[in-house]
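Hey L., structure's done. Input below.
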Amino acid sequence: MKIKDMTIISLFIALMIAGAFLKIPFPFIELTFQAFFAIMAGLVLGYKRGIIVTFLYLLLGLFGLPVFTKGGGISYVLIPSFGFILSFIPASFLTGYLYKKKQWNQYIAALIGMSTIYLVGVPYFYGVLRLYLHSDMAFVVLLISFIPYFIKDLLLAIFGGYLLRYFRFLNLE
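Output:
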């Protein structure tokens, strides 16, 4: 791996960590930006480097570094929102693969990647709430927290597609 690759991968890992702590407070939730940077990693870096970024981010958190919104450590897998973090890996891969390899439109690739985050994260969220935490309100909590995140992330995916033009100078082919 080239030094340029290692540098840009490190930069995107740092952006994902920063995205966990850039928070917009709302009544029941805080909106963060890790999903946005996972999608951007796929768009800008491609599927190979994008998956490295998201996988290393996940490993850093699971090994105990406080890179997730509520810290880190192996016990984080029991937090309902961990499924979203786990989904960053297939989302960045799919986004990068569709955009770089298959030459899909960057907006469509970003929206499909963001949808992947929800296809993995939502069932995990519900499963932990219902099966592990035995919450009778799991479905209600899911709906309340799902809608604002989903709208924000769809808008950020479109914004990421627009921002892509400013990353062309990296010449990462």
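The beta strands are 24-25, 30-31. The first helix runs from residue 3 to 21.

-- N.
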